Amino acid sequence: MAQPAHPWYTWSHQITIWGILVQIVCLDLEGVLVPEVWIAVAERFEVAELRLTTRDVSDYDELMEHRIRTLRSEGITLTDIQETIGGLAPLDGAREFLDTLRENTQVIILSDTFEQFASPLMKQLGRPTIFCNELFADEEGYVSHYHLRQADGKRQAVLALHSIGFEVTAVGDSYNDLTMIQTADFGALFRPPKSITEEYPTLPSFEDYDGLLGFLLADTRADRTL
Amino acid sequence: MAQPAHPWYTWSHQITIWGILVQIVCLDLEGVLVPEVWIAVAERFEVAELRLTTRDVSDYDELMEHRIRTLRSEGITLTDIQETIGGLAPLDGAREFLDTLRENTQVIILSDTFEQFASPLMKQLGRPTIFCNELFADEEGYVSHYHLRQADGKRQAVLALHSIGFEVTAVGDSYNDLTMIQTADFGALFRPPKSITEEYPTLPSFEDYDGLLGFLLADTRADRTL
């Protein structure tokens, strides 16, 4: 290996300065790429109780206990739910949005949903990577237990990505996305309820995929600063 | 919300016991899913110096310095390299293997390569999520700098996934995969050099995708224990 004489070549070519970081985008699933799954189940089986979300019952465990009881009392099995979800499609334009995004940067879906619910929708979205939770059914086929990967999982995922050198941009639509968005380097809302935009008026907010894509793929950091 | 009388319903349905963890698979890229990129560049431009890998020069920075100098002295630009990579295809059967795996579990590619090299191959693999590094070219188009997301990035990624509640299975073919494999909960080699199988005789090792898929999708942990 002959060494060129110019002293420049003796310097390291590795860039380690702060500010040059590999980018990754974390997206919420329901409301951002696909319809709200529990709402779809509530409508299909005409069970109003299943329309309750974290907007109505702030304690997630309490909400899930209620859903599990209601499903059993209404005779709705995990297979019934999965069939309902199998009939859903991603939101209009979501697949094209996600394809364009994945051509340009790395993407991970961060969701509070369950793998057993997400799978048929993930297939239609081109199998992006998703970090979510798991459900278990009993011998009769009813949802009996659930396993949350961890508490405040979306925010913890952003912290984990930070710990391995990523600059994270996070997008969500709901209250359960706010810690993720606020922990990320950059963040935005997509079709949020009015109450959130009123509480967080400085967060960029988008109603269509073209606008969101422009934000996510902006060349200059200034365009994406919170 | 009527509460059923049975006391079982007053228990939490959340499973938090150890041993029930969401699965994720981390795969090396070159040698596991696609050909070795630097070897392809060395062959296309007939520059033997570019055939050197971490097997020959154990210090990664030293190896990259040497590659950057050689590319410049041989007049090979980043665009030339990208065109060469654009002409490569994934290994026979890699896309089908990865599609089947992604239908069944979450997958992240952990690679020491650069986004600028990986992108055309990622497209052919259906855009799986990849954690890798970044390259920069100067005004003449020559590779001038590189940015490693962090030192020992593959192992750190496994630790980060552990920190957010995943059980990780890691697969690689080379010396730079060993810390990742040994940090993961389960691990295997795919088409490794003989020297590695001799040094690590207890690591499961596979020569074809069907065997590897059987290992990765095994129902029982016992089948996948290191």
Structural notes for this entry:
The structure is a homodimer of 226-residue chains. The first copy, chain A, is built from 9 helices and 7 strands. Chain A is α/β, with parallel strands linked by helices. The first copy, chain A, has a 7-stranded mixed sheet with strand order 4-3-2-1-5-6-7, with helices on both faces. In chain A, strand 2 (106-114), helix 5 (115-124) and strand 3 form a beta-alpha-beta unit. The radius of gyration of chain A is 21 Å and the shape is globular. Chain A starts with 21 loop residues before the first strand and ends in a 10-residue tail after the last helix. Mean pLDDT of chain A is 87; it is low at 1-11 and 220-226. Chains A and B meet through helix 2, helix 4, strand 2, strand 3 and strand 4 of A and helix 2, helix 4, strand 2, strand 3 and strand 4 of B.
Tag the structure with descriptive keywords.
homodimer, 226 residues, alpha/beta, 7-stranded mixed β-sheet, 9 helices, 7 strands, globular, disordered N terminus, disordered C terminus
